[in-house]
Amino acid sequence: MPDRQDSGASGAPEGAIASTGMGGAMDLAMSEAETLEKRPADNNGGPTDKPRSLWSDAWIDLRRNPVFIVSGLIILFLVIISIWPSAIASGNPLKCDLAKAQEGSGPGHPFGYDGQGCDVYTRTVYGARTSVTVGVCATLGVAILGSVLGGLAGFFGGIWDSVLSRITDVFFAIPVVLGGLVLLSVVTSSTVWPVIGFMVLLGWPQISRIARGSVITAKQNDYVQAARALGASNSRMLLRHIAPNAVAPVIVVATIALGTYIALEATLSYLGVGLKPPTVSWGIDISAASPYIRNAPHALLWPSGALAVTVLAFIMLGDAVRDALDPKLR
Prior knowledge:
By secondary structure, this protein is an all-alpha fold.
């Protein structure tokens, strides 16, 4: 075969040969060959140390999503006042003066007073602590219990999967509000833990089904089959290969459910079977203000508005996370 002739200028580096996949070859300039070895570029145009993962791509999308920014700021504010309510409310939520019952807003009391003469502003601020605590704790309990049970059932299958499916069908048949009326009506504790336990008891089947389906899908991927062929143990495959790739749907559903649990706590407290005085709760305040809605609508408006904004913020956050973690929406 005759020698290849350089088409470039004298002293240029030799061309690199790259297979075309069709049995032939093509000449690449050395700079082009080096380009093939470069890793994906980051947002600033420079090469990154490693290719971006699903989570890094999701975070980039979330930072550009105004829905996520707005909802995140609202939730951050709620978390701050839940931890430190005295930062913006210096009064005592349990201190009431009947002489000021149903009065409107005044200096130092922008939301007015309720039917018992309690400062509506102070009780609305302190009520955020209860709602956030119930929502976060219930969501964590539901996510952990449902993910473990659903993930194990989806991975091992067989009799365990069948038994779990029948159990979840039983729990799905129980109306949530009716179940709360029956189960919580016999509880005398005024703490948040009976309400949280009830939510975990009736909430885990939804997360369990999501986790089960996600694990079944993930364990059929090639990297899991390769790990199994190499002799990886069940625990290693679950923790290292399946769980990181199956947890995204669980996070999305749990984030949306957090707002639902806050609304459920307020509903049960409004019906008188959830939280009980002297606990400060938006549901309790809404229930107490309902008889005075004509004479003192402000006592009902502010806790109801705080509840609506909080639930909406968590639902918006869940929608934004879902859009960022769903590859089909890219």
